[in-house]
Amino acid sequence: MELNGLWRRMLCRALLLALVALMSTTVLAADLKVYHDKFSAPSWQGPFEQMAELASEELGITWETIGYPTTDMHQTAVRTSLPSSRAPEMFTWWSDFRMEALYKTGGLVDVTEAWDAHADEYNPALRAAFEFEGRVYGVPTNLAYWSMWYNKPVFEKYGLKPPKTWDEFIEMCEFLKGEGITPLAHTVQGRWPTFIWFQELLTRLDPDIYEALMIGEINYDHPTVRQAFDIWQDMLEKGYFVDPGTDLFAEVPRMFANGQVAMILIGDWYTDGLDSIGLKAGVDYDTFVVPPINPEVGPVIIYEAAPLLFSKNAANAQYAVRIADWWLSPETQARWCSILGFIPPNSKTDASFLMEPKKNLLNEINEGGYRLVNRYWEATPTEICEAAVDEFARFILNPDQKEDVINTLVTIADRYWSAQ
Amino acid sequence: MRRALRKAAPYIYILPALFFVGAFLLAPMLYTFYLSFTQYDLMTPPRFIGLDNYRRLLTEPNFLTSLTNTFVWMLGTLLLPVGLGLFIAVVVDRVALAGVFKSVFYIPLTISAVATGLIWTWMYGPDLGVLNTILRAVGLSGWARSWLTEVPTNTLAMIAAWTWKMTGQNMIIFLVGLQAIPKEPVEAVKLEGATEWQTFRYVVFPLLRPMTMVVVTMSLINSLNQFDLIYVMTQGGPYRSSETLAVTMYRESFTMFHMGYGASIAIVLSIIVILLSGSYLRANLKQEGAQ
User: Quick check: A81 contacting B, CB < 8 Å?
Assistant: First the structure.
């Protein structure tokens, strides 16, 4: 009898606890927020909402998705709310130095514990992009690899094959130019794309020098950096590139589609734009990694890692590690990446959903022992980067001003690093 | 009691307006003024740094470029959309099918500055742009160029786009003015043997002064605050060559998050707008009073 009473009391308590848990989940559902900067094309609004549904099923946690149409608006919203309890629980951001100012406020949740649970599933270079003083503060929303996307019918017409050496690559550019096809795309429109060829050439010469330059161990007048500028100048003067006023997103895809330009060096997210004008992956376009200029360098590829960060001051910050752990899992990554067509950063994720060129690229990176190097935009301090992209534009438009551009970059970098 | 209430009534009526002006105009202005003496990144509290932001303005080469471009925009918009608006108004005023012409010139104004910027960016495209395609088709390949990356062509090209958008508005205001001019003085000077130009120069144009004041003041303020069209078309580039003060202010505040420095540019810009538009209005009103 007494035992029955005890069981009854325990059952009541268990029911009460379950009820409380259920209620707290319901309250939580309305309270969590995620801010993102991809409200316009390619939109992440729908994908985040789908992930909220999945999180609701699997974790009993869900969120409201709030998208901002421009990165400026998104950054302003995050920065103003981060120090307060109005901060969103999660928000998209940029890695490395772009993250540093936020980390320094102490407003980010440390999710190292979640990363440790998935240590064998991720390339350490990716973790490092979100790491400060040995602790990790974000999980990946996108890991993009920067390779050369080429017009397949043009290559087939002239019997061209993806080059294995830098000399072969330059020979191919020269040949295409002779056939009246502009070999390469680039632009100064939109400011940021001007760093693309600088980072590519320098990493093909020496990735150690590139990384040393990014963190101020050497300056822009280093002989290898100068060599990168020399090669770039030579390519510009030989006419390998389209007019730098060409819009990379509005004009280049159409020029690429009609065979006016043969190759575009960019992150793998760019394929959305190619698909949107009716091109077919693997049929109309494919990709290869630019070969090293210095053969001793070995295989190197630029990556771009975009994180989802967690606000420490947010009302429901206590769920950050749990969500991070779930987000990092191979299954969640499969769901997120398959919605957006991204290459999964988790090595245990089934990547069979990927389009053929991306699948092949991923296999090549995994099997070829590639060294991953972070993109210029995030790898160097924002103060330097924002000024440097304007100087790169000046160089692209006026290659004869190379010395002046290098000297200005040296001054910009000196001023920044001496103040640290 | 009732007398006191009657006396206070007007003040009570203006209270709502006073509240809105105070909260949404004066308070942000004062806060911007305060921020201009601080270093602030939106995440950590503002730190007072005295006149450092203003000192930086004097030493920053990009500020000088922005200032120069702002004045180029000011001159350009006074010469083109205002001058052309006046010219078209005078012509349209005396032709048949005036209504059709008015509509044609007015339509671009109904398109937002952002859409105008996008349309003209495509038109200025170096390879597939309409402008270069036409130039190449008519054998003027030498004139085809990269309109938005060559300096100072890029600023002039954007002023042309702005002219396309704004001429219609100025034309309509001038037309209203032209139609309000009494016929007697015009006919009188014609009877005296004045030419068309003399009639316009000495009778019509002086009588248009109130409308000219409105158009010039609006153009001055719009040109000095020019932002959206430039931001869409070049973002102030390449290498900050087409930035105006408004674009530099935005870039410093919302790209670099140098809110204090951005605020100091806003203050300088406001002073320039107040000084120029204020002195123009005062000079004209004084002349009007003298007449």
Answer: no
